Amino acid sequence: MTSARRQLIDPQATPFYHVINRCVRRAFLCGEDQLTGKSYEHRRGWIVDKIKVLSAIFCIDICAYAVMSNHYHLVLKIDVAAQRALSPHQVIARWTQLFSGHPVATQYLNGDSVSDGEHMLLDGLIAEWQERLGSISWFMRCLNEEIARKANKEDACKGVFWEGRFKSLALLDEQALLACMMYVDLNPIRAGIADSLQDSDFTSIQERLIELSEASPTETPPQAVSRREAEAAFPLNPLLAFDGAVHFAEQSGIPFHFADYLELIDWTGRAVREDKRGFIDSTRPKLLNELGIELDAWITSAKEFRRQYSGISGRWDAMCALKAKVGGKWCRGKQQSEALHPSH
């Protein structure tokens, strides 16, 4: 029996989640349809634009993304501290960027007086909206609804665009987060549609490399935003920064050094390409040594991460504990979990 989404996404257990959604129709979300020859490449930009806008409104950071021909992957982090720190004015201002809100909220935001009864109503609305601003479900709803409307309008049709609600996977520790980000960033190389990280269009690793090589700290990377959304009321959020060797529990950023991540993703990208096996350096990347992960287990994870687990990824004991908490009867991925966490 499946678990409720509100149980599978629990910021108290972990703020990091992998989410994926797939297009239901034969027509491509992005790329070029081989049957008709029609290009949908511009739709990749819709996804990247929108997640940057939503990240600035929601208290949700983007760790990694990859927009493929008929699906997309995101690795998200819920910023619980930022969500809790929002003032009533900030909550209303953010929420009304997405929805019309309520007349009494507009009245309050404009500095007009409100009655005691209206204040009670407003307090309830603010509490509800503040909770939603830290909700991945609401983040994904805002993303998917807009993309579906735009695609249906462009295709001159009606009906369902996505095959269902997004799938989510809780990432409980450093190994799970690292393996998932690597899996997402390497999607185009693994699929054989890109030969290098620099050629992996519409991925977070390409964006980070562009920032590193071309953009100054104050510049926005190419392909990151559209002009319309760049003029939005809120500044667009950059990708979540790498914090270095910060403990996972501190949750302030991505707990690795970016240089180490680059070393590992370059090594892994060549390892997952069948035609590049002869060029693999036998030296173990630094992050694999620090986390004690065996090479074979890591390569398998880079190729099959999403298929190895069901809703949760992390140490086996932590996975079982969370599954028991949400009411599940069994947990999937013991062998893979133990391979990525050999010291436990």
Task: Kindly summarize this structure in a few lines.
It contains 16 helices and five strands. With 344 residues, the chain is α+β, with helices and mostly antiparallel strands.
Describe what you observe in this structure.
The structure is a single chain. With 344 residues, the protein is an alpha+beta fold. 47% of the residues lie in helices and 9% in strands. It has 16 helices and five strands. The protein has helices at residues 5-8, 42-57, 80-85, 88-95, 103-109, 116-132, 136-155, 174-185, 187-190, 204-213, 227-230, 258-271, 286-291, 295-308, 316-326, 334-340; strands at residues 16-22, 60-67, 71-78, 167-171, 312-313. A five-stranded mixed sheet has the order 2-3-1-4-5, sandwiched between helices. The chain starts with a helix and ends with a helix.
Total strands: 5
Gyration radius, rounded: 21 Å
The general outline is: globular
Strand line-up of the largest beta sheet:
2-3-1-4-5
SSE succession: HEHEEHHHHHEHHHHHHHEHH
DSSP strand content: 5-15%
Mean pLDDT: 83
Q: Note the main sheet.
A: 5 strands, mixed
Spatial gap, N to C terminus:
29 Å
How much helicity do the residues have?
40-55%
Secondary structure class reads alpha+beta
Total helix count?
16
State the low-pLDDT regions, or none: 216-232
How are the SSEs placed, and which strands pair?
Elements: H1 5-8, E1 16-22, H2 42-57, E2 60-67, E3 71-78, H3 80-85, H4 88-95, H5 103-109, H6 116-132, H7 136-155, E4 167-171, H8 174-185, H9 187-190, H10 204-213, H11 227-230, H12 258-271, H13 286-291, H14 295-308, E5 312-313, H15 316-326, H16 334-340
Parallel strand pairs: 4-5
Antiparallel strand pairs: 1-3, 1-4, 2-3
Helix pairs in contact: 2-7, 8-14
